[in-house]
Amino acid sequence: MTSSVMVERNSFGASASPAACAPGAAPATNWCVVPRCEIRIEKCKDGCKIVCSCEDEVACSTLQNLCQMLSSGQCSLCCQFNGVTCLDCKLCCGHCKYEPTKDGCCITCTSGDAACCQMIQACCEAVANCIKNGCTCFLCFNGTPVCCCC
Question: Which has the least CB within 10 A, 66, 106, 110, 112?
Answer without folding.
Answer: 112
